Amino acid sequence: MADHEADEPHESEPSSVWSSREYRIYAPSWLVTVLAAPIETVVIGIYVYGKTADPLSLGWIGLAKAVPMILLALAGGHLADRFNRQWLLVVTVIGQAFCGFALAAIAYYQLALWWVYAILVVEAATQALGTPARAALIPLLVSQRQFSRAVAWNSSIFQLGTMIGPAVGGILLGRTKSYALVLGLVGVARAIAVVGFLLMRPRKQEFVSAQESAGKDIWDGLKFVWKHKSILGAISLDLFAVLLGGVTYILPIFAEDILKVGPEGLGFLRSAEALGAITMAMILAHLPPMRHAGRNMLLAVTGFGLATIVFGLSKSFWLSLAMMFLIGALDNISVVVRHTLVQMLTPDRMRGRVSAVNSVFIVISNDLGGLESGVTARFLGAIGSAILGGTGAIVAVLIAMKLWPELTKIGRLDDIRTVEEGLSPGLERVEPVACRELSNNVQTVSTGSASH
Q1: Which CATH topology does 17-200 take?
Q2: Do residues 68 and 117 touch, judged by C-beta distance below 8 A?
C-alpha cells in the first residue's frame, strides 16, 4: 500500500485528480453524455427546420428544453439529497438514452412534429432531475483539495464536447443522410455512459433527515443560497453577466451582415469561444490553486464585458475571433470559482438542492440572455446589443462588489470549507470561507462532511 501511494501524484499536482479511480471512470462517461447533447441538438434543429422552414419552430425547441429545467430543477435537488446520487444519475441518463431512441423512431417513421417537442420535454425533465445529482456527486469522487481541479477538468471536458459535438453531428448526418441513425447513435452513446456511471464507487453521502417535510426540503436550497452571501453573489454575478453580456444568440447576425464570413465563419466564432474556455480550464488545472479567487472572478467578469464590447465594435474577423476566444477563457474563470464555491461551501447533505438552485440560475441566464440579445438587437442593432450587454456585465460587477463585499475576500480555492447551517446572527454577516488570507479575520466552521 505504501509503495502504491508513493507512486500517486501529490494532491497539489495538476494531475492529482486523475489518481482517483472514480474520477477516471466518471470523466469519459461525462464526455460521452456531453458529446451526445450537441449532436442531438444539431440533428433535431436541421430535422425540424427542414420540416417547417419556420424559424419559430426552432424557438419552440428552446422553450421545450427550458421550461422543464426551470420547473423541476429544485425538485431534482431535493431528490439528490434524499436518495442515492449515483443511482439518480444512472436512472436519468437511462431516461435520456430512451429519449434518443424515441427521437430516432420519430424520424424513421416520420411521425407528427409535436412528438419531437414532447420527447424533448421529457428529456429536459430527466436532465433537470439528474443534473443536481451529478454535480453533487463529484465531491464524493475526489478529495477536497482536488475538487477545484476536478471542476477545471470538468469544464474542459464540457467545452471539448460542446466544441466538437456539433461538427460530429453534422459530419455524421452528412455522411449517412439518416436522421434516425444519428439519433439512434445518441441513444447508444448515453447507454454506454450509464455503464461507466454504474462502475463508480463514490464515498458515502450524507442524507437529509427523513423527518423533514418534502415541501420545506425543496426550498431549503434557496434559503441556504440566500443566507450565504458568497454563493448568492457568485451565482447572481454569473447570471446577470451572461444575461446581459452574452452574444451567442446573435452571432449569426455578425457572421452574415457585419463580418460577412458566412456559415463557416460562424462555426469558427462558436468554436473560438469553446476553445478559449478549454484553454483556460487546462491552464487552471495545471497552475496552483488561485490565491485570490474572489478578486480573480470579479476581474474575469469585467474582462468578459470589455471583450464583448470590443467584439461588438470589431469589423475584423480575426479581432472578433480573438475576442470570442477571450470571452470563453474569461467566462471559464468565473465558472471554476462559482462551481467550487457552490460545492465546497455547501454541506454534503444539501449539495443536491444548492446545485439545483445553481442550475436554475444558469438556465435563466442562458435562455433569457438569448431573449435579451434578440430584443435589444431588434431595437439597437446587433452592435448596439453587444455594446450594451458588455457594459451591463461590467455594471453587474460593480453592483456585486457593493451588495456582496464577501466576494472580494475569497482566497485560495483549495482552502474552502463547508459552512454550518446553524450560525449565530453575528457570524451570518461574515461568510465563513476558510482561506489562508482570511484566517486571522474570519471565523471558520467545518461540518466534517463526507467531502472532507
Answers
A1: Growth Hormone; Chain: A; (1.20.1250)
A2: no
